[in-house]
Amino acid sequence: MTTDPADDIAAALAQLRGRRSRPPFGPGGPRGHEHEHHGHGHHPFHGGPPWADPGQGRFAGVARLRMLDALVAASGPLSVSEIAEAVGVDQPRASRLVQQGVQMGLVEREPDPDDARRTRVRLTAEGERLVSGVRGRRRDAVRSALESFTAEERTELARLLTKFADAWPRE
Q1: How many CA atoms lie within 13 A of 43 on its CB side?
Q2: What is the pTM of this model?
Q3: Nearest CA to 132 among 47, 68, 39, 45?
Q4: What are the tens digits of pLDDT across the range 65-104?
Q5: What helix, strand, coil percent values describe the chain, rounded to 5?
Q6: Neighbours of 105 (CB within 10 A)
Q7: Distance between CA 64 and CA 94 in Å, rounded?
Q8: pLDDT for the residue 171
Q9: pLDDT, mean over the chain
Q10: Which of 10, 23, 42, 156 is the one with CA 20 to 30 A from 35?
Q11: Which letter does DSSP use for residue 75 in this model?
């Protein structure tokens, strides 16, 4: 655990979000509005956040963000199989996420030094900037939600939520 409970809570929430094996409803969302989005600033996909391409379905952005989070958390570049495991998707879906990330300039492929037939994936500077911004907003939202908590309550919530996230089943 870090010294700031808000950071621990944000990390535990991100960990739990990454463990969802599949969305609770189809790709069009709860009402079937596959291309609905609510405009979160300018980017190439008509006003949503840069990782959320409405053409890829409602949850494409969440999976893409989990891929970027996994790459940040890794000690080095990851294989597509390692990304699939970290994100909780099958290998073909992970390959598509990587390809979308490459097209968006968020990740790049590099040769695997141990196996010339494979590639490894790493964040680009743009991908690092995007994840840093998202993490900052997530941390700010957690801090705002914790304003009415005492220091002891924040620390206890961070401890319990981290314990809960660590115990959550991977599948």
Answers
A1: 17
A2: 0.58
A3: 68
A4: 889 988 988 888 999 999 999 888 999 999 999 999 999 9
A5: 55, 10, 40
A6: 13
A7: 9
A8: 59
A9: 75
A10: 10
A11: S
